Amino acid sequence: MTRTPIRWTTVCLDCPDAHAAAEFYCRLLGWETTVTEPDWVLVRDPAGGVGLSFQSEEQYVAPTWPEAPGEQQKMIHLEVLVDDLPAAVEAALAAGGRLADHQPREDLRVVLDPAGHPLCLFTQ
């Protein structure tokens, strides 16, 4: 079987403000904005790898964390490996995130990005 070359390059997150979301992730991860349009922004790790893009959606509804019947469910969450969990949480909050009320485990912290997407910070 011949395989067609396919390469995964980006995960796109819908949000109410693409520019605000991009700024948060650039501050948190040390990434750079590579393409900017009025309602869409692409950011990438300068070292390479899969990037993130953000698309403004007028009808965006933030997910509920943790999930609740009848509420907007999350469709995706990002997981970020960190060396120092308290320092990473502090950096995420300083970048514009907020600590979720529900924290399911002691070895990770769920931070909500400016659009309400859950972001799991964890150590190995």
From TrEMBL:
The species this protein was found in: Nocardioides taihuensis
InterPro entries: Glyas_Bleomycin-R_OHBP_Dase, Glyoxalase_6, VOC_core
Upper lineage: Bacteria, Bacillati, Actinomycetota, Actinomycetes, Propionibacteriales
Domain VOC, residue spans: 5-124
PROSITE patterns xrefs: VOC (PS51819)
Gene3D superfamilies documented for this protein: 2,3-Dihydroxybiphenyl 1,2-Dioxygenase, domain 1
Name of the protein: VOC family protein
